[in-house]
Write a structure and sequence with these properties.
CATH class of the largest domain: Alpha Beta
Strand order of the largest sheet: 1-2-3
Strand content: 15-25%
CATH topology of the largest domain: GMP Synthetase, Chain A, domain 3
Radius of gyration: 20 Å
Shape: elongated
Structural class: alpha+beta
CATH architecture of the largest domain: 2-Layer Sandwich
Number of helices: 4
């Protein structure tokens, strides 16, 4: 039962924090940020918010620093928006899975382009 409640709370936190980042956080260091997932501990005391940032490495660092500084504000806003007895500690974590997937897609595109080029060369002979 606790696992189900933690996952439900995780989904709610994901929606609320995503909306909060888009609308309420005015820090110019926060770039194009996406909340990819939220993991809530079984005791509902801690929540890891996984963030993906579109842009270069410096933009990612700046965005993560700004979000870490805003975690107290985010936690207090969550307390106002969601009826909870205890609001979990919010910790932002960088999620590189989207960038990793984009890198793999680029590598596959390169391989496909090279294979297509090799086929064209073999037809010329």
């Amino acid at each position: 039962m606790a696992k189900h409640r933690a996952s439900r709370l995780g989904e709610t936190l994901k929606e609320e924090i995503s909306q909060m980042i888009r609308e309420d956080l005015k820090d110019p260091r926060i770039g194009f940020v996406t909340v990819t997932s939220v993991e809530v501990a079984d005791d509902l005391g801690h929540a890891k918010v996984f963030i993906s940032v579109l842009g270069d490495e410096q933009k990612s660092k700046d965005s993560m620093e700004a979000l870490k500084r805003a975690s107290g504000f985010v936690r207090s806003e969550i307390g106002k928006r969601i009826r909870l007895r205890h609001v979990p500690e919010i910790v932002f974590k960088y999620d590189s899975s989207i960038q990793h997937g984009a890198h793999i897609a680029e590598l596959l595109r390169e391989v496909h382009t090279e294979e297509a080029g090799d086929e064209d060369d073999s037809h010329d002979e």
